[in-house]
Automatic annotation (TrEMBL):
Alphabetical list of InterPro entries matching this protein: ABC3_permease_C, MacB_PCD, Macrolide_Exporter_MacB
Keyword Membrane in record: yes
Record-annotated ABC3 transporter permease C-terminal domain positions: 290-404, 680-793
Ranges annotated as spanning the membrane: 21-41, 283-304, 339-361, 381-402, 427-447, 677-700, 721-748, 763-786
Chain ranges of the MacB-like periplasmic core domain: 20-238, 434-619
Recorded GO CC terms: plasma membrane
Protein name (Swiss-Prot/TrEMBL): FtsX-like permease family protein
Source organism per UniProt: Flavilitoribacter nigricans (strain ATCC 23147 / DSM 23189 / NBRC 102662 / NCIMB 1420 / SS-2)
A molecular function (GO) term: transmembrane transporter activity
Location, primary (coarse class): membrane
Superkingdom: Bacteria
Pfam families listed in its UniProt record: FtsX, MacB_PCD
Amino acid sequence: MIKNYLKLALRNALRQPGYTFLNILGLTLGIASTLFILLYITEENRFDQYHEKKDRIFRVSTDITEPDDAFRWSTTQTPLAPQLKADYSEVEEYVRFIPNGRTQLEHQDKVFFEEKVFLVDTTVTDVFTFNFLRGEAASALKEPMSIALSQTTAERIFGNNDPMGEVLETESGRAYTVTGIYEDMPRHSHLIANAMISSNSIPSLNDPNSGNWGGFGIYSYVLLREGISPASFTAKLPEVIEKYVAVIFDELNIKVRYELIGLTDIHLKSDFEGEPEPTGEIGFLYIFGAVALFILLIACINYMNLATARATKRATEVGVRKVLGSDRKQLVAQFLSESLIFTLVAIVLSYLLVLLVLPVFNHAFDMELSRSLLFSGPVLLGALGVMVLTGIIGGSYPAFYLSSFRPIAVLKGSLGKGSGNPQLRKALVSVQFAITIFMLIGTGIIYDQMSYLRQKDLGFDKENVISFSLQGPEAREKYPTLRESLLKNPKITAIGTASTTPGDGFGKNVMNVETSQGTMETFGVDLYAVDYEFFPTLGVELAEGRFFSPDYRTDSTQAILVNEAMVRRFGWDDPIGRRVQFGTNDTLPMLQVIGVVKDFHQLSLYDPIESLLFIPRANNREMHIRINPQTPGEMSEILGFIQTQWQDVFPNQPLEFDFVDASFMELYEADQIRARIFTLFSVLMILIACLGLLGLASFTAEQRTKEIGVRKVLGAKTSDIIYLLTRNFVFLVALATIPAFLAAWYFMSQWLETFSYHTSMNFWLYAVAFGIVALITILATGYHALKAARSNPVRALKYE
């Protein structure tokens, strides 16, 4: 029986090559698109899955509420994790990752700067799983002054030489011995360490009597014992706050709460600030999953429309087979088997297409999707689901419809030419159009927002500004010399330093602040250290008062600047002269506001502008240089000049710099990649819909061949025939705009609200989306209409 089904399916496919090609091409593109989306979703869900104890590892994060502010930090205080193990038997082990910042590592008079360097507890390999290539994982970081390097870092510093036992010195004068080399942490890790230093190298980090419960910045992880519920352990965390934390923060009217987040949930579900690596967003996975379903739905609709449109072509076959004894179940099985065979062929072709195109896809979207993922359990299961969904659901209606023909009516020829349930086909085509219009509007709004992010006035001039770090006190001591030599170039117009750079975070300090009523109250305030040239270098403007100036001796010890957000926060009608006191000690000196700078975006547009307080400080870590190139050639000359002056002052240190505008846009890199992916699949969706539309238009014209001939004999013009055959499709486009517009308005409004600053809903995009779909429809259907309109009416009148 099955062999017979296969023979019939193959015979019918070869008999109608055009129909077969359209169906298989549409299904192949649809399934290939779905496979790409499955790969992306699988990759996003792989984060931190390689750790053997992943299900028992939880990070402790912090929720802080102030009287007029609230924030969620991914970090905690230094003593928290060891205290949790000491106080609670539920904690089997703990480990802390303490960021060491951009670290200078010196070996044999060569200086290297490494990002992502962490001090870690000796228990790190008891909790996490790392593949050590050299040295023993269990003992590599047990001894003080030990350092373990990733494979890439070791090769960069030591080349092909053996790094084990070699000594690396830091800018602070500490000498660390290389005791282990581990395989690079996978890209799908929420935290990536290029080097790990044993935390017992700094005794204060492990001294229970010197712990600072008021300072944050430590990534703290606990390994819960088998059988311990994270919810039950979380319920005990308020006890820790009451015992160790409340004594500090209650008097400041600040509430602290700890939360546990599972290791494998961090990448997709964390909403905490200060994550060590860019996080994903589970909402986008739902969106891409919906896109995959939309694409499959359109592919299924194509199949159903083409199959039912050709109902009359197979009516005689059904009638004869019923007369010869076939029952309806056998006919349904026959048509479903054809659908499944089409789908199986399309899946095989889809896999081949994805294997071929995957390197291009990875390069275009800066990904590292592996071909091996195509044969992983989740993707294979997804492909099986696609086959069932497309093969059975896509083929079910044609199967039941075609098998329902009455043999007497068929054999008498009384089955109408318009059979195939045109109303259902119209409804399905409308669904296709609605989905396509929705995707086009969504793509347009996403790109509009990305353009808004690139072009929005950030409150400072980010163009042609270079930033780099002055690593260590020695480098900062030599800053005046470097600055003087650089300013000799007339194309370098300004140089300033600050404690951070636009796009990066800043420190928060507890301060006594004068309120609008004149009383001193305690608040947490974000702090920014700048030198006298910083604001002119970045082009930050003054709202009132004045900037810091060397002409005022008291500025270095008594003056501060604030931004407009801080003025609004404290309700200052007249901010000049308002007082601020560091800490909560009344004996500390008072500082006074001498000026207000206009708000500028220090962080991404996802975040509101924070209230900032600026203190004057010379020779800060982050150096900013404004250049004025007139041509690309001048840009290269200026960069070469900066490189030369740097090497003259720091002969053993490589110069590593960033352009502020580029580094700021990196904050939106993930969004831009998602936007490009969304656009790609929108285009593919339109292409798949067009394939079905071409086929359906062809059959529509074929069904009305004799009618067209009669109309032409009676004097109808070519334009009349084209209008006749295209108007119904254009009407369906117009009908589809109602649900598409409503869905786009609702969902895209919700997405825009995730940004603190976003573009408005540009409704002209709706008209553009409608116009594009209408134009494609007219072109796709108009081709067959024009062909029919130009045909010989004599042949049309003879057509059966």
